[in-house]
Design goal:
Order of helices and strands: EEHEEEHHEEEHEEEHEHEEEHE
Number of strands: 16
Helix content: 10-25%
Largest sheet: 8 strands, antiparallel
Radius of gyration: 21 Å
Bound molecules: 2-OXO-4-methylpentanoic acid
Number of domains: 2
Shape: globular
Number of helices: 7
Strand content: 25-35%
Oligomer: single chain
CATH class of the largest domain: Alpha Beta
CATH architecture of the largest domain: 2-Layer Sandwich
Distance between the termini: 39 Å
CATH topology of the largest domain: D-amino Acid Aminotransferase, Chain A, domain 1
Length: 370
């Protein structure tokens, strides 16, 4: 695969002037261009960059019926020095590769996937550089997607696919970051099977499973769902849009990657930082009863989620059965704040990138308001 530049069909008329950078929200606006590649006759081919547009799909396309689709998400940040940094895209490429394998999508090699994703992202960033927001907390969200495109009602893997990468200028995923989000522990429905399911893959089915419990949680006044294991509904898993961390009695604890939760990139970054700071997190099963007991004993010091969209998101309270357990302080805890400052500091080029986490793309434009 020639990786220099992918052929480009530029937009005739940019939509940039329609964007209200004061009200970006999350994922509602898509930049002018997207990357596209297809799989046909046994090979990935025809990489190109073209205007963001609707794609023709027959109603009989099996992906629409049986869900053979995977995606990922990573971000580019306009730095305080005006350079743009992509955060750990090679981890997303590996995860997308692994998700493809789990969904029986013919995966490229990990290295090829990484090179295509990083090159396509660079080129999209260069083309749509004026779309990259420059305010602190804003970023360019990059969404690769792979879908089966064969029209067949047989339940089997498709013989043709499309790989797209689209980009979207975004603000915070959660709006009430200052006071922290509230979670409702789901003890009836399951996000993903405990053993052998799809939980570690970034695939539509996991998100589809979350919609009804998510709706019910919001109806009851909570922001998000805290999932328990699918076997006993006993052990904490994740939040869907983020991995979960607790600081209890001076120790940080997070559920282990056992195949049922998403291997988060920010989760991995948090673990690395905590290790470096001399407070390694325990990766172990955490019973919801343990959390409740720790709350009753006044030992829960901090709770936060970690995710690409969510970054580091303070969690203020947890509703379980008929009780709500809330932290004493409404503001983010010291460790939560330190992790947020360190990770965003690296992402926006405010702090040295000691771990070589960022890939730099030099473009002209304004520096971020760090
Ligand atoms: C992400 O953090 O990239 C996610 O995919 C979470 C959500 C927006 C689906």
């Amino acid at each position: 695969m020639q990786l220099s530049d992918f052929p480009v069909t530029p937009v005739q008329q940019s939509r940039l002037s329609q964007v209200d950078f004061d009200n970006l929200g999350f994922g509602a606006i898509f930049c002018d261009h997207m990357f596209s590649m297809e799989f046909a006759d046994g090979a990935w081919r025809n990489p190109e960059i073209l205007p963001y547009q609707a794609i023709p799909l027959e109603p009989g396309v099996a992906m629409l019926h049986y869900g053979q689709t995977v995606f990922d998400g990573y971000k580019a940040f306009r730095g305080v020095d005006a350079d743009v940094r992509i955060f750990r895209p090679e981890m997303n490429a590996r995860r997308l590769h692994d998700s493809c394998r789990r969904l029986c999508i013919p995966a490229m090699g990990v290295d090829e996937m990484r090179d295509i994703m990083i090159n396509a992202t660079r080129q999209l960033i260069e083309l749509d550089q004026d779309w990259i927001p420059s305010r602190w907390g804003q970023s360019l969200y990059i969404r690769p997607l792979v879908i089966g495109t064969e029209a067949t009602l047989e339940v089997r893997a498709a013989d043709s696919y499309r790989f797209l990468i689209m980009t979207s200028p975004v603000g915070s995923y959660f709006t009430n970051l200052e006071k922290g989000v509230s979670l409702r522990v789901e003890d009836r429905f399951t996000r993903a099977a405990s053993i052998g399911g799809l939980g570690a893959a970034k695939t539509a089915a996991n998100y589809a499973a979350s919609l009804l419990p998510g709706y019910e949680s919001r109806q009851q006044g909570f922001d998000q769902v805290l999932w328990l294991d699918g076997n006993e509904h006993r052990y904490v898993e994740e939040v869907g849009a983020m991995n979960m961390f607790f600081k209890i009695g001076g120790k940080v604890v997070t559920p282990p990657l056992g195949g049922s939760i998403l291997p988060g990139v920010v989760r991995d970054s948090v673990l690395t930082l905590l290790d470096d700071w001399g407070m390694p997190a325990e990766e172990r099963r955490i019973g919801i009863d343990e959390v409740v007991d720790a709350f009753r004993a006044g030992e829960v010091e901090e709770m936060f989620g970690a995710g690409t969209a969510a970054v580091i998101c303070p969690v203020a309270s947890i509703g379980y059965k008929d009780e709500v357990f809330a932290l004493a302080s409404a503001s983010p805890g010291e460790l939560t704040q330190r992790l947020y400052d360190e990770i965003t500091g690296i992402q926006y080029g405010k702090l040295p990138d000691r771990y070589d986490w960022t890939v730099r793309v030099s473009v002209s434009g304004r520096a971020s308001t760090g």
